[in-house]
Amino acid sequence: MATNSNKEEPRFDPNFTQNVINAMGPKTSPRMREVMTSLIQHLHDFAREIELTVDEWAEGVALMNWAGQMSNDRRNEGQLVTDVVGLESLVDEITYKKASEATDYATQSAILGPFFRHDHPTREKGSTITFNTPEDAQVVYMYGVVTDAKTKKPLAGATIDVWQASTNGLYEQQDEKQVDHNLRGKFVTDENGEYAWYCIRPTPYPIPFDGPAGKLLQVLDRHPYRPAHIHLIVMLDGYKPITTQIFDKDSKYLDDDSVFAVKDSLVVEFTERKGDSEAKYELKYDISLAPNNDTVAEGTLLAGSGAISNP
Amino acid sequence: MATNSNKEEPRFDPNFTQNVINAMGPKTSPRMREVMTSLIQHLHDFAREIELTVDEWAEGVALMNWAGQMSNDRRNEGQLVTDVVGLESLVDEITYKKASEATDYATQSAILGPFFRHDHPTREKGSTITFNTPEDAQVVYMYGVVTDAKTKKPLAGATIDVWQASTNGLYEQQDEKQVDHNLRGKFVTDENGEYAWYCIRPTPYPIPFDGPAGKLLQVLDRHPYRPAHIHLIVMLDGYKPITTQIFDKDSKYLDDDSVFAVKDSLVVEFTERKGDSEAKYELKYDISLAPNNDTVAEGTLLAGSGAISNP
User: Fold this and answer.
1) Residues A38, B282: contact at Cβ < 8 Å?
2) Which stretch of DSSP H or E encloses residue B145?
3) What digits encode the pLDDT tens for the residues B240-285?
4) The pairing of beta strand A139-148 with beta strand B229-235
5) Which domain of life is it from (chains A, B) (predicted)?
6) Hey, which residues 216-245 in chain A have their CB within 8 Å of chain B?
7) Cα dihedral sign, A255-A256-A257-A259
């Protein structure tokens, strides 16, 4: 569609994009200039390449506004819209690639997702996070050791946040029938770098389908399911924090996760557990942390107002 | 930053983007597939090119949600965010290029802007649209003829919607001190294709600066001003409708319109008017309409639910 029989004359104003880029003033931060130069170029190239019409652009704007109107403290629909086109997984890959360039052995990361809470209760090593275990749930004893990616030595005092959905596909904040903080908690590694808890074997679930992200999946003829996974954040002073998800090797949707978060190295195998009346399965999962030599860059593109982070 | 010393091995997963594109199912419409293939490719290329971090992506998501939360019946902040990066002007150029490819002489279009109303009262030829004329306003007699772009013959019965801001930079729906429908109206060309009205000479004004579009302008070190302009929509059955803005040749900001809508062919000259106690200036502006041979494509990328157009 974008071909032009007269090659002497560009089909659209050839100076337009550069004019928009050049409008940035001298006080624009170098990083913001770099980001916006690339964003404007790609957005314009996209529009010209497929000859986006005013009506189609207006549909996109309406979708964007709809996402914002649907978002609140418990739901981030704007995030979900970018998730279903793979953007969160991609920036996650980029970020951890940048952060880990000095070391090669840190556990790979995966996206945070919209159901994390900042107030996980700290729980005893070996205790449970499942307080409303449904009949169709299978309890798992999960354990392992956190080590230094370079020295391989165990790391005491590392914190591990864990959270997962119940077998109905809902996280506790989405589900009135689960007690507060069901299937989530914070654990601390002992003097041997070891952690352990009881949780449930995760099951696949659909991401929310009633908003613009669901609409997008629908018109793209895609399903909303995520493969069975457990969320983890591992942190220790002096080490790069890891936000990750681990995926059940036997789950459906490993090859077509609706938010594209699966990496081979994050697929784990649950095995049968013997001699424990509390758990039918077990999962040994070791985690290595890379020493933090660099200052971690904060997101400050739009710094100068609290309005962005807390609209 | 994105350079890689080891050219054998790509810096990021080389299959990721194609995997996301391939996730589209067979029932995706051909146009949606075309649009999303290009959008996903450009979004991912953008993220890789500038190595977008998770924190920066989260700032962008928050900006997008903020735009939706600020939008309502009287304000479209999502639109404004895309306007300040030139996207509405670009899709306008693309759309009218596509629509007018059969004829070369139709009046050029410009963006609609967020202040149009669908219920303009029809007014008599030669009457006024200024009912609360401020002291610093200069009244203009604007007139001209609407013709067929091919035959050059005058077109009777064409409707012209006109709207403009007052000298304080506000459209009537933004300003309690202006009467309903001040500085807007709908006119119909007479048997000679002629139209005429009294309006005010337009003045520059800033776009709303208190939301994400304003925030973006601020961090890009750009001003929010638009050059002085009058909005017009011209329609007649059997002809392609035109949405346009005309710009005062003597206005500031012609070269740095905050939404990049100025085209040379839309810059007009107001001249002194003699022998009319009602108006100090006059503007003769003729408009040519291209016959409509094609079916106009509607925006139907997300068709199948009323939720997009009316969230």
Assistant:
1) no
2) strand B139-148
3) 888 889 999 999 999 999 999 898 889 999 999 999 999 999 999 9
4) unpaired
5) Eukaryota
6) 216, 218-222
7) positive
Residues A174 and A37 in one domain: no
Taking chain A (311 residues) in consecutive chunks of 10 residues, what is each chunk's mean pLDDT? 56 93 91 95 97 91 92 84 92 82 56 80 97 96 95 97 96 92 97 98 91 89 95 92 92 94 92 96 95 58 43 29
Report the pLDDT value the prediction gives residue B208, as an integer from 0 to 100.
Answer: 82
Those of residues 257-286 in A touching chain B at CB distance below 8 A are: 260
A163 and A259 co-located in one domain: yes
CATH code, domain carrying A167:
2.60.130.10
Do B122 and B181 belong together in one domain?
A: yes
- Whether residue A125 is contained in a domain is answered as yes
Instruction: Determine, yes or no, domain membership for B79.
Output: no
- Rounded to whole angstroms, how far apart are CA atoms B254 and B102? 30
Q: A-chain residues within 8 Å CB-CB of B256?
A: 23
Residue A125 lies in domain: 103-207+219-289
Global ipTM: 0.81
Alpha helices, DSSP H, located in chain A: 16-22, 30-49, 54-70, 77-84, 87-99, 212-219
Q: Do the Cβ atoms of B78 and A59 come within 8 Å?
A: no
- pLDDT value for B207: 87
Do A161 and A271 fall into the same domain? Answer: yes
Q: Backbone dihedral region of B180: left (phi > 0), alpha (psi from -120 to 50 degrees) or beta?
A: beta
CA distance B219 to chain A (A): 6
| Domain identity same for A42 and A187 | no
* Contact check, Cβ <8 Å, A62/B89: no
Residues B130 and B42 in one domain: no
Residues B273, B157 share a domain: yes
Chain B residues with CB-CB distance to A297 below 8 A: 53, 55
Give CA–CA dist B154/B194, Å, rounded.
8
Give the Cα separation of B11 and B4 in Å (integer): 6
| N-terminal to C-terminal alpha carbon distance within chain A | 41
Number of domains in chain A: 2
Q: Does residue B22 belong to the interface with chain A, where contact is any CB pair within 8 Å?
A: no
Give dist(CA A178, CA A167) in Å, integer: 11
**In the sheet where A229-235 sits, what is the strand order?**
A184-188, A159-163, A229-235, A242-248, A267-268
Q: Taking CA atoms, what residue in B is nearest to A243?
A: B54
Q: Within a domain: residue A35?
A: yes
- The torsion of the CA quartet A241, A173, A85, A222, rounded to 10 degrees, works out to 140
Q: A109-122 burial string, b = 16+ CB within 10 Å, else e?
A: bbbbbbbeeeebee
Q: Which residues of A touch B26 (CB under 8 A)?
A: 221
Instruction: Answer yes or no: do B35 and B135 share one domain.
Output: no
Considering only CB atoms, which chain B residues are within 8 Å of A56?
A: 35, 91, 299, 301
- Whether the CB of B209 is below 8 Å from some CB of chain A: the reply is no
A208 within 8 A of A174, measured Cβ to Cβ = no
**Closest of A202, A201, A189, A200 to residue A144, by C-alpha:** A189
What's the pLDDT score for residue A73? 75
Contact check, Cβ <8 Å, A52/B91: yes
Q: Cβ contacts (< 8 Å) between A299 and chain B: which residues?
A: 53-56, 58-59
B residues 40..99 contacting A (CB < 8 A): 40, 42-71, 76-79, 81-82, 85-95, 97-98
pLDDT of residue B294: 53
Helix, strand or coil for residue B210? coil
